[in-house]
Amino acid sequence: MAKIRQEEDMKTPVSSLIDVVFLLIIFFVVTASMEEEIIDTTISLAQAENVEAVENKDPLAVTVNVKENGKMNIATIPTTPRNLQQILTSQRVRLGNSFPVVIRAADKTRFMHVDRVMDSVKKSGLYKVKISALSEK
Amino acid sequence: MARKKRNLGGEAAEPPMSSMIDVVFLLLIYFVYTQKEIIPEAHLAVNLPGPPPKTQTPPKEPPPVIDVRVLSNEYQFMNVPIRLSSLRERLEQFGMKDSDYTVMIKTDVYATNQRLVNVLDACKKAGLNSLNIVTLY
């Protein structure tokens, strides 16, 4: 009888373990940012030494990713300058001129590719853009 | 005997903890694996060439303009080739005098995005916020 009681005492507290693991899962689910889906993490951004990182990004911002070879995408969906212009024009009609356009170009991307994005922005009637860089501050 | 049967019946009603732990650990591994580090991104705001803002009273004097060129192999300040470190110093001197200076950044289509970001970063450090990008073809 004493032996049985000792074996029962030796059991791992499974319910506490599950509690801890569930807490960890909840943490990861809450902190898993949906933003990662919008930005193309394969792009190696240019580095800026003196500008602070943006903490709260504008949810209305249209982020355009421009790869080194000039291919562009929005939320990892490939797009063309003409498509981009249409998207921005429809956004401008809906939201006005206040929403920002963020260009996430790779550090080695030639300016001609960035200029294509800027040209689409201008043609859609917008004149302000933000160029994204990796903050080292 | 009756007590023993009751105990057996009670044990059979317990949920299968080991399978549950397996599933929970798989979930945990998934979330740990898909967790991505947050990229500290800085946004450098620039203006594109476009129609002037509609103001009723035009300014008496046009704002002073600093001309910076970003070429594929060099930087130029007021049409004079300059090193990046010297360019930073010159911009800081202008920024200390008056932060209302407009910086006209003329960028060659073959210049890389990193070179443009270097100049934008230097302007921000100097406190110059009116930055305009023009494309050099």
In which order are the strands of the major sheet of chain B placed? 4-3-2-5-6
Strand residue percentage of chain B: 15-25%
**How many structural domains can be distinguished in the coordinates of chain B?**
2
User: Given this structure, which CATH class of the largest domain in chain B is correct?
Assistant: Alpha Beta
Shape of chain A: elongated
Task: Give the tally of β-strands of chain B.
Answer: 6
User: What is the count of β-strands of chain A?
Assistant: 6
Percentage of residues in strands of chain A: 15-25%
Helix tally of chain A?
A: 5
Low-confidence stretches of chain A: none
Architecture per CATH nomenclature, i.e. the level-2 architecture of the largest domain in chain A: 2-Layer Sandwich
What does the largest sheet of chain B look like? Answer: 5 strands, mixed
Gap from first CA to last CA of chain A? 66 Å
CATH class of the largest domain in chain A: Alpha Beta
The radius of gyration computed from the alpha-carbon positions of chain B, rounded to a whole number of angstroms, is 31 Å
Strand line-up of the largest beta sheet of chain A? 1-6-5-2-3-4
Helicity of chain B, as a percent range: 40-55%
